[in-house]
Amino acid sequence: MEKYNKLISTSAHNLLKEKEKFEALFQYASMGILVIDARGEIILANNFLLLQFGYETPDDIIGKPVETLIPQRYHHKHTQHLAHYSKKPERRPMGIGKDLFGVKKDGTEIPVEISLSHYTADDGNFAIAFISDITKRKEIENAVIQQKEQLADINLKIEELNNDLEQKVELRTEQLQETLLQLQNSKEELTKALSKEKELSDLKSRFVSMASHEFRTPLSTILSSASLVAKYTETAQQENRDKHINRIKTSVSNLTDLLNEFLSIGKIEDGKIIAHYSHFNIKELLETVCAEMRNLVKSGQRINYTHHGNEVVDLDPSLLRNIILNLLSNAIKFTLENGTITITTTANDQEIIISVRDSGLGISKEDQEHLFERFFRGTNAANIQGTGLGLHIVSKYIELMDGQISYNSELEKGTEFIIKFTSS
Question: Which of 89, 330, 350, 351 has the most crowded Cβ, counting Cβ within 10 A?
């Protein structure tokens, strides 16, 4: 009996120690622990849980429904969840994927994290809830979320600013390109203006030089001839008088031609000369012009004219006459004595072709590039009278009648000018 009592005493002592260990583990755990029975009433709560929820002693919550620690708005759902858990208890986190809240004694809500477990004893089934106050973690999470939202707002603003900046850069680039284009255009216009001014200045210089030379020669001839005529007072000296009178007439004619060329250039530049088309006999016109020019040929020079095809054409006869006169005049000047000048006209239903060929000095390759420029004189024509305007005027007259002029020339072998017009 004594041995039995001793055994009982030892067992009781061991149970007391185990109970003390359990209570130490239960009471000093670093999370809230809550034990509820099958009816959902609180039967145990450790000190950490009391501290979490603002209660002073276990008696403040022991025997009360667990909903005491849950916000009012969740009571109905929690009752259903508790009934379901009681039927099928298992170890698991509570409210997976949801935010859980507890309510303190003073009514303050706190975010919590709950893990559930259960056990069965002689007096029924019980649930154990391990509760952690995650206020700090939620504050950090909320702060992180807020920072992410702020960062997203900042990124959005940066993106908007970047888009705005890109648009401004694009606009400024377009404006800069437009400005550069305007500057380039202005530069080109200025370059053209300067080139035009230089060209005009060169033309003025060449005109003054040419005019002073070309006018001086006939004026000197007129002056000297007039003086000599006055000395021939005898009847027998009539031949000498006629000679100098003819020289005066020729010089006056040359001056008239010079003035006419200058006037023609001015009218062409001002657009005052217009082609007036009419039907006329080209063969008769050319024969008349050749007859007139034969009075001006050098000693032994010959002008041969031939026509082929249709005789009636539709052109401006006045312009065509001036073209032929100018080309024949040049041919006479540049062809030596006893030389031949050949003119050929051909007309059919498609085109009119006029050829004026001389056997004179010819034109060098270098000079051919400037042949139709104003005031241009060939390097081998320095001692031959002329203004350098004739071929320029010819090209403009031909252009007025929508024609084309070309040439073939070789030094010391003569020059041929070929004019083509389309028949109307």
Answer: 330
